[in-house]
Design a protein that fits this description.
Layout (H helix, E strand, L loop, with lengths): L6 H7 L6 E4 L3 E5 L7 E7 L11 H20 L6 E4 L14 E6 L6
Antiparallel strand pairs: 1-2, 2-3, 3-5, 4-5
This protein binds adenosine monophosphate and zinc ion.
Adenosine monophosphate (AMP) binds next to loops.
């Protein structure tokens, strides 16, 4: 399901442009518009939900699917020396977009 007010749903629908690096029927991976590392990708599922705290079995299947795809997508984007995955949950983590996404960061040694 989509949320018409959600910018990531709009990216999925093509209403907002993005630099896509991978897409299939369940997920999309695109470049973060304000990269926090040399390579900074965002992986999103095509079903809208806001928060990790809304996880259920069906949503977990989607996240599992994304986690199975990410290593190859990372490799295809030059992340051969390692990378970091981040999911921000809520305000204290600084979550700004409320459509669950996995940050993929790398391309250089990352500060902790
Ligand atoms: P978070 O703080 O975990 O909610 O991360 C949201 C991320 O989305 C931030 O790193 C933003 O730079 C990124 N972002 C916001 N709008 C766009 C956009 N239109 N295209 C690509 N990345 C975006
Ligand atoms: Zn959405």
């Amino acid at each position: 399901m989509k949320d018409s007010n959600c910018i990531f749903c709009k990216i999925i629908d093509g209403q907002i442009p993005s630099a896509k690096v991978y897409e299939d029927d369940k997920m999309l991976v695109f470049k973060d518009i304000e990269p926090k590392a040399k390579v900074h990708l965002l992986a999103i599922g095509k079903d809208h939900f806001k928060l990790l705290s809304e996880m259920d079995e069906s949503r977990a299947e989607l996240v599992k699917y994304m986690l199975c795809k990410i290593p190859q997508i990372a490799k295809d984007n030059g992340l051969i020396n390692g990378y970091r995955l981040i999911i921000n949950q809520g305000d204290d983590a600084g979550q700004t977009v409320f459509h669950l996404h996995i940050h993929i960061l790398g391309g250089e040694p990352l500060p902790w």
